[in-house]
Amino acid sequence: MVVNGSAAAADGTAGPVVRVPVSLRVNGTERRIEVDTRTSLLDALRDALALTGTKKGCDQGQCGACTVHLDGKRVLSCLTLAASADGREVRTIEGLARDGVPHPMQEAFARHDALQCGYCTPGQIMSAVALIEEGRAGSDDDVREFMSGNLCRCGAYPHIVAAIRDVATGGRRA
Ligand code: FES
Ligand code: FES
């Protein structure tokens, strides 16, 4: 643990900057970084590891744009401290394609025109993949319910539901 300098704390008081080494297994590769203990997993992925596929929307846990998988479970990376992910498995949108072949969910999103601006799409797809792994994509209503934490300002929802149901009913790889 390294303490160096100071920074304004959330309550306005100055506090020491504490940096810690963090080891993550990201998309199958071991990555070692050093982060401020207050760094979110989202910022660590984007800024320290240059994995900018994961998007920062609200940065407050309300939009789902930052969804990644941590030890196989979907989490909001903006609400997850990078230090708390030490030693754990992280999967991001960059880790879905294999050997240059898009994941079936990525293909389904493209096939169903389930994106417009595309900004929310990585988080939607990561949630959608988890949803199927959780066994919660049994009906359109289930998909809508369990995807409700992922917001899309463009309103592509009917196409998103169709893409997810396509993968869920086609028995494709999730
Ligand atoms: S950026 Fe994390 S929920 Fe919006
Ligand atoms: S596709 Fe634009 S916000 Fe979702």
Automatic annotation (TrEMBL):
The keyword Metal-binding applies. InterPro entries: 2Fe-2S-bd, 2Fe-2S-bd_dom_sf, 2Fe-2S_ferredoxin-like_sf, 2Fe-2S_ferredoxin-type, 2Fe2S_fd_BS, Aldehyde_Oxdr_Iron-Sulfur, Beta-grasp_dom_sf. One of its GO terms (molecular function) is oxidoreductase activity, acting on the aldehyde or oxo group of donors. The keyword GTP-binding does not apply. Pathway: Alkaloid degradation; nicotine degradation. Keywords: 2Fe-2S, Iron, Iron-sulfur, Metal-binding, Oxidoreductase. This is (2Fe-2S)-binding domain-containing protein. It comes from Streptomyces mobaraensis (strain ATCC 29032 / DSM 40847 / JCM 4168 / NBRC 13819 / NCIMB 11159 / IPCR 16-22).
